[in-house]
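Q: Convert this sequence to structure tokens.
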Amino acid sequence: MKLLSYAILFFILTISINSFSQEKTILELTPVSTLVKVTSYEPLAVALKIQTKTYYLPLSHWIKKNTLGFDISEIAFVNWSAGGTSSISGLFKGNFLRVYNRDNYKWSNELIVRYGLNKQDGIEVRKTDDALQFNSTFGYRQDTLSNWYHSAKFNFNSQFTNGYSYPNKEIAISKPFAPAYIFMGIGAENINKEKKRTFYVSPFTFKTTLVLDQILANQGAFGVTKAIYDANGVLITEGKKSKTELGFLMTSSYKKEIFKNINLENRLSLYSDYINNFGNVDVDCDLLLDLVVNQYVKANIGTRIVYDDDIKSKKEVDGTQVTQGAKAQLKQLLGVGIVYVF
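A:
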């Protein structure tokens, strides 16, 4: 019994000592390696618009248009019971346009050339058309909204080769620069681009008629002062080679597509001299119908009417040329040909 009491007492003491004693605990921190997944990102790229230096061609204020054409017509007979004369005709034509347009200024230049020949069976080659024409107009307007320009106009007309009153081919009735017509004047011009219409009027226009062939000048051709002869036919004073007039000039041009692929073009010029027979009007009217087949093939029908009181008609009578009075001149053409525009 006494032994049991000592055992219980020892057990209680042991528990008490363990409960109140301070035990020093050392914590060891062990390095822990942790694998972390790292996502690889592309660097942020921002597209930058960098303006590089660009070279531009200088802006041209010139507009150019060149048109070349050749019309041909032919008829041939072989053992044709109804009879007829074989013939072939050709007409070369060119139109060259240069226009300078900037702000309130406009300078228009146009060169027109035509030359035609005809050959009939048993007859020599004959000229059918011959024209050299240059037009230049410089205009200034007050603002870009107006269609009216203060304008100065220059016009030149002549021909390339001699002209004859067929069948006479010995005596020429016209030659290069005989005649030649020069118009210079100032006035007002109305240009309507939408309607493709141009109207010019000038109260002060000088008209100069040149007849640089002395033989024609001595005859007083085309209105120049003719030569003076004595009673025996001896030349006293040669004819003048030029004549200058001051008068009123009005010109107009109009172009429109009246039907599909059919274009109408009209040019009109009216001139009256203040000093000599004012009110007697010189007329030059050109009417042309273009029938477009395709880009390169066209047919055309044209009529030109000319009246000038200074141009006297001539007629062949028994082998002699007889000068008659002024008459209206009419020319009509019909042709199909090739046209090239560049």
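DSSP finds two helices and 18 strands in the chain.
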